[in-house]
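Intended use. Records like the one below are meant for learning the mapping from a protein sequence to its folded structure. Do not use them to infer anything beyond what is encoded.
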Amino acid sequence: MTLKAQVSTRLAPSVRGRLAARLKATSVLSLPESQFARLIKEIETDPLFLRLFFPGRKLPRVISRSRSPQVSLSKGFYELKEGMVSGSSAVPVEAILEKHKDLIEIIKKIGQEAFERYFLYGDGAGSFDEIAQATGISVPEVKKVYELILDLSIQAQFSEPGQRLTGHRQRYSVVAHIEKDPAGGAVLLNTTLPHLARGRYLVNRDALTEWRKLKILAPEEKKRLRALLEKIELVNIRQSALFRILEAIVDVQSRYFFSRQKSRMRPLTMRSLASRLGLAASTVCRAARERSVIVPWNEEVAIADLLPSRRDLLEFILDELMKESNFQKLSDSALGSQISQAFGIDVPRRSLNECRRQWQKKTAAGAGES
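Structure written out for the chain above:
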C-alpha cells in the first residue's frame, strides 16, 4: 500500500471533506484575476444559475448579489472605448468591442442607472422577459448585454494587468482605485472590474426550500445544485477576503492617501491584518498576492506595500526627518521622543539605533555613487 493510500484510509470522511474544501478555497484565492473572472462566467452562464437568479416574479429568488457599500464601479468603465483598447494587441478587446458595438450603444441608451440595476447588480432582476420590458430592449439584447459584462471582466487588458513595480519581479493585477472624495474627507474605493463591483452572492435557503417543496427543479438540476452552490461559496470566500482587506487598508492608511507621505502610514502587517479581520494569515497573503491598487495620485502600488511593519515605517520616517541637519544631531532618545510626538508611534531605542545606522550607510552609499 502506498503512503498516499495509507493516509487516505486513516482520515475520516469528514476530515477528508474539510481538507478538500480548504484546498479548493486556497486554489481560488490564488487565481489570477482573469481566471477568476472565467470561473464567474462559468457559474453565471450555467442554466441552473440563471433559473435561480432570474426566476421571474412568480417564484422566490434563490440567488442574488450583495455588493460592498464601500466599493463601486469606476466611471472609467463607462468610457469603454478609451479605457480598454490601450496596451498590448495580444488581448482581443478591440475585436470584442467591435463585435458588440451595437451593445455598447444599447448600454448608453438604457442609461447608467438602469444598466446597473438590471445588469450589473441585478437588483431589479425578475426574468429576461421582465428586464426587456423594463428597459425597452429585446430579450436577445438583454442576454447579449448580460454576457458582454462577463466577457469584458475576463479580458486581461481590461482587468488592468498592471506593471512590474519597482522592487517587485512579478507583474501585478490592479483590482481597485483608491480616490479622495471631492465632497469631503473620505477615501473611496472604485474598480473597473465588473465582477468585483458586483460583490458576493447571497443564497436564500428559505427560497430554495420552497423550490424543493414545489418540485420545480428537474432531477438533473438537483444533482448539479450542490456543485453550483460550492462554486458560489468559493467565489464568496475570495470576494469577501479581498474586500475586507481593501476596506481595512483604506481605513488604517487614510493619512497616507491624503498626504502622499509614507511616513504617515500606520504599522499594519499581513499577520496583524489577519488578526484584525479574523482570517488566517495565509488567506490574507494569497488574497493580496500579485494584486495592486491605484492610489489617489495615479500611481500603482502593490497591496503588500501598503502593509508596512513597524520597522518599515521607522525607515520611512527617518528618510523624511534625517534630511534636516537638526534631526541628524539629536541623540537616539531625543529623536525617539520627536518621532513619538510627531507620528504617534513608540520606537525602542535599540531599533531606532539600528535603523539610524542603516540610514547612514544608505546615505553614504548614495553619496559615493553620485
